[in-house]
Design a protein that fits this description.
Blueprint (H helix, E strand, L loop, with lengths): L1 H47 L2 H37 L2 E7 L6 H12 L4 E4 L8 H9 L3 E4 L12 H19 L5 E2 L17 E2 L14 H11 L4 E6 L3 H16 L3 E3 L1 H5 L2
């Protein structure tokens, strides 16, 4: 009886061990099946991305790159257009009351160094003894205009006196340069174009007047001009004062750096 009990216990142990082993085996099989299913699902998802779809993705990436490149090109072209527009802005520098025995030639030197052409409205009574300065103006491409003989307020003169004021200066300029000038700037801006003697003359006023003749503060004059300059302006200055000459050259440097170009009054008006 004792031996029979032992044998029965052994069989129970074997059966118990078999059940444990079988349970582990089943669990492993389930894990293998789940792993295989996951891998198969992944392969199916990848397969769903067809070559055509992959090509579309590649094309989309290429399109994005092309759009970015196009935007950069458009921006560069816009910058070039803006720079071109700025480069087309023109300014006419004009100087009244000369020639001065010293300052006018200093101004001419500075303008020549900078490649700038200007317009000089000369006073006839200041020309004798400085004919070479007038000739130099013409030879270096500047425009010479008429500012009367005595810097007279023509609104206070008779018709014959007005005609004489302009004619005397015109004759002097033509005698020196060989050419008469039709451009005039009446002192104080007063003008009467109904006079027959003035009918062929072109009066030139201004758009920017920094009142340089009222101050020796060069910086103030420069600031007034460069703040107002916008293109197609006619700037009124005087070559009869040292501070005005210094201001003029500083104005040129600043506005040239901003893309402005300088022309004579004739060039500006005939555009």
């Amino acid at each position: 009886m004792k031996e029979t009990g032992i044998r029965g216990g052994r069989w129970m142990f074997v059966l118990f061990a078999f059940m444990i082993f079988f349970s582990i085996y089943v669990q492993k099989q389930q894990e293998v099946q789940e792993t295989g299913a996951q891998q198969e699902g992944k392969r199916q998802q990848e397969a769903m991305v067809s070559p055509e779809a992959q090509g579309m993705q590649a094309d989309a990436g290429a399109d994005t790159g092309e759009k970015a490149e196009s935007m950069q090109t458009d921006a560069a072209e816009e910058t070039e257009r803006e720079q071109a527009d700025v480069g087309e802005r023109k300014i006419a520098l004009t100087f009244d009351d000369g020639p001065h025995p010293v300052y006018t030639e200093l101004l001419l030197d500075g303008l020549k160094e900078r490649g700038v052409k200007a317009t000089f409205f000369v006073v006839g009574k200041n020309i004798p003894g400085h004919e070479k300065v007038i000739l130099r103006m013409a030879q270096e491409g500047h425009l010479i205009g008429n500012h009367t003989y005595d810097h007279a307020d023509v609104s206070r003169l008779s018709s014959s006196q007005v005609c004489e004021e302009f004619q005397k200066t015109s004759d002097l300029v033509e005698e020196i340069t060989g050419e008469a000038t039709p451009y005039v700037r009446p002192p104080f801006g007063n003008w009467d174009d109904e006079l027959d003697c003035l009918s062929s003359m072109i009066a030139v006023n201004w758009t920017i007047d920094p009142l340089d003749w009222t101050t020796a503060n060069t910086a103030q004059v420069v600031e007034r001009v460069v703040t107002e300059a916008a293109g197609d302006d006619i700037i009124l200055l005087h070559d009869y004062y040292k501070s005005s000459v210094e201001a003029a050259l500083q104005i040129v440097d600043i506005l040239q750096a901003r893309g402005f170009s300088f022309v004579t009054v004739e060039e500006l008006l005939l555009e």
